[in-house]
Design brief:
Elements (H helix, E strand, L loop, with lengths): L12 H17 L22 H4 L13 H6 L2 E9 L5 E10 L4 E7 L27 H11 L7 E5 L4 H8 L2 E5 L3 E5 L6 E5 L2 E5 L1 H9 L15 H21 L4 H7 L3 E3 L3 H11 L7 E5 L2 E2 L4 E2 L1 H11 L13
Parallel strand pairs: 1-4, 3-10
Antiparallel strand pairs: 1-2, 2-3, 4-9, 5-8, 6-7, 11-12
Helix pairs in contact: 1-7, 5-6, 5-8
């Protein structure tokens, strides 16, 4: 079995987002050579973890009257929930990777950590009613919450990650091409180790060290004369999703075994190797433009899910006609 490394709490959420989304994809595309000599029902990480399919029957949660009933029950998709978990049992990054086997689309849906989710009676602290607080030591809890926000979309598997080795993954890819939106410059001599970011604007191929710094960048020093993201979180999400897409696109054109070996050291999942091999044979030939990224729409100061916006997002992902929901109860 593969050894599960400890989480590095000092890594930024951006690094984690890349590692999670990329690893979720690697679970799908892993070739047989990466697991030579392993049994087909083995799983990455700790095999004592829960198995999502045994704990929850998501198909039973979809009401027949749901506008997405046919899409969820008949479409040939594999949905993997990937999460980065802090030691305080909060999921600081949540991403759903959805692979359309029949039409060869890979959709990556980001769920912001502060998304409102009603945790039930007995939870009086406002922080308890956030999606990142639902984990509570068990990935099944997060999967149920995410499925509910996504209108009971079935979730087939989960992946938990530590984040060491992200720089090695990027270097194993051979660097990631990126159009850096502005000159990113930042310094923090008190960080451990000291952090110095200086990435010029424009088209370039970022190596592992540069890629990690791009993902860590939040804002410029106030007195530096350099800029940060003018649209704050939306700008950061746009940059991180572009980086993820570029990394995935480049990886799909490479010989993957060495990349997988590095990435899987940081994955704990209930996806069996046999299932991964089966999915790998189906994703071969996916077109780079068929890798799509989304963020669930939110509304209000408490970041409640915009259910009509989510419905519109799902109709695009599942290639359906428009769905108009009844007014949401307050």
């Amino acid at each position: 079995m593969m050894k599960n490394k400890k989480t590095n709490n000092e890594m930024s959420a951006f690094i984690k987002t890349f590692a999670i989304a990329f690893a979720a994809v690697l679970i799908i595309v892993t070739p047989a050579v990466a697991f030579m000599g392993k049994v087909l029902d083995a799983t990455p990480g700790d095999d004592d973890g829960p198995v999502l399919a045994e704990e929850v029957k998501f198909g039973e949660l979809i009401h027949p009257d749901s506008p997405f009933f046919d899409a969820f029950t008949n479409t040939k998709r594999v949905n993997i929930l990937a999460m980065g978990v802090e030691r305080n049992n909060l999921t600081d990054t949540i991403i759903l990777a959805s692979f359309d086997i029949e039409n060869k689309f890979l959709d990556i849906i980001s769920i912001p950590r502060d998304t409102y989710y009603y945790a039930g009676p007995g939870y009086n602290d406002k922080a308890h009613h956030k999606i990142n607080a639902q984990y509570r030591g068990n990935p099944i809890n997060s999967a149920v919450a995410v499925s509910e926000i996504l209108m009971n979309m079935p979730i087939n598997y989960y992946a938990l990650l530590s984040y060491e080795g992200v720089e090695k993954i990027i270097d194993e890819i051979g660097g990631v091409p990126m159009n850096v939106p502005f000159h990113m410059r930042y310094s923090d001599p008190y960080d451990k180790p000291p952090l110095y970011i200086d990435i010029p604007k424009g088209e370039q191929v970022l190596n592992g060290s540069q890629g990690v710094k791009l993902l860590r960048f939040r804002q410029a020093n106030e007195d530096s004369g350099f800029q940060g993201y003018p649209d704050a979180d939306l700008g950061r999400i746009k940059t991180q999703q572009e980086f993820i897409k570029n990394a995935i696109k480049k990886s799909l054109g490479l010989n993957l075994p060495n990349i997988v070996k590095v990435a899987f050291d940081n994955i704990e999942s209930d996806v069996s190797i046999g299932t991964a091999l089966n999915l790998a044979s189906k994703i071969i030939g996916i077109e780079p433009e068929n890798v799509r990224t989304y963020q669930i729409p939110l509304k209000g100061s408490d970041y409640r899910p915009d259910m009509q916006g989510i419905a519109d997002m799902l109709t695009e992902i599942y290639s359906m006609g428009p769905v108009v929901l009844e007014d949401e109860a307050e």
